[in-house]
Design goal:
Helix content: 25-40%
Number of helices: 1
Number of strands: 10
Order of helices and strands: HEEEEEEEEEE
Largest sheet: 5 strands, antiparallel
Strand content: 25-35%
Strand order of the largest sheet: 3-2-1-6-7
Shape: elongated
Distance between the termini: 45 Å
């Protein structure tokens, strides 16, 4: 009985850190998955010399090769090639910004360069940023610059 009581006490002490670790791993995995899928889209654009469209919403994102003639920045079933469609985890807050302006879509061209369609004039050094907040207050973001460089940062 004493051994069972000791095991119960240890379990009560160990459970909160394990739950926090699981949520942190889920958050990190979300950032890594987004970064990897953006890299995959960029490489597909270069490989196929076709624009790769990235559409961002509060619910998730869609990445596809826009093979419409001319490219129309929207998914056309039967014409375009889906690369990845993913939903954000429940409870995550997503913000898309560049130069203090919101954006919801951008594309990689056949050279891997980025164009933010929702923005008028951007300086070449401007980064787009997809910021992700979880319910525990963690924040991380994925940066995309005009030259197609993609990186992730945790805070």
């Amino acid at each position: 009985i004493v051994a069972i009581a000791i095991i119960g006490i240890i379990a009560v002490i160990a459970t909160p850190p394990l739950l926090d670790w699981r949520e942190k791993a889920r958050f990190t995995g979300t950032l890594q998955s987004l970064t990897a899928n953006l890299q995959r889209g960029k490489l597909s654009a270069v490989r196929d010399n076709a624009p790769c469209q990235v559409l961002l919403t509060i619910n998730g994102y869609t990445i596809f090769l826009d093979l419409s003639n001319p490219p129309n920045q929207q998914w056309d079933a039967g014409v375009d090639i889906m690369i990845k469609q993913e939903q954000w985890p429940e409870g995550y807050n997503i913000v898309f910004t560049s130069a203090e302006t919101n954006f919801t879509s951008f594309f990689f061209d056949g050279r891997g360069l980025v164009t933010f369609q929702d923005l008028a004039l951007l300086a070449p050094e401007t980064d787009g940023r997809i910021t992700i907040h979880d319910t525990a207050g963690r924040t991380g973001f994925v940066r995309i610059n005009m030259l197609g460089r993609i990186g992730q940062v945790y805070q």
